[in-house]
Amino acid sequence: MGGTRRRAGSGRVKQVRGRIEQWRRTRAKRSPMPEPLWDAAVRLARADGIYPIARALAVNYQTLKCRVALASNGSSRSPAGFVELTPMPENPAHAAESVSGGETVLELSSGGGATLTIRFPAERELDVERLAEAFLRRGRR
Questions:
Q1: Is residue 85 within 8 Å of 96, Cβ to Cβ?
Q2: pTM of the complete model
Q3: Which residues, 6 or more positions from 113, have their beta carbon under 8 angstroms from its beta carbon?
Q4: 33 lies in which domain range?
Q5: Are residues 60 and 20 in the same domain?
Q6: What is the DSSP pairing of strand 96-99 with strand 103-109?
């Protein structure tokens, strides 16, 4: 590899690792890592590589890999965990829409051609973000 990448022990990595360690010492048990820390880890991983940064920061490699992929695709996660879905009539395979009878249909498709269709009552809540992440992660194995 070229000499353009910083080592995982660089000052920026040490700073983010320190912030993560501080959060780990003070967090409520089993609480998720805050988005600003994930965002910093993603920025480092995009510059220095996913594996070295996951190892240097002691964060889950698969989670970091998924977040880097989401960031590379122009997707973003908001701090509140809200995901905005915009129906796209030209390509209904990517839209979540209400259909007659109070049913909601969610269809996800991967770049590799896999499709996931879920039908559920409109009044039922569904964690679309987690479903989408799991679906996309499954396709990369």
A1: yes
A2: 0.50
A3: none
A4: 11-72
A5: yes
A6: antiparallel
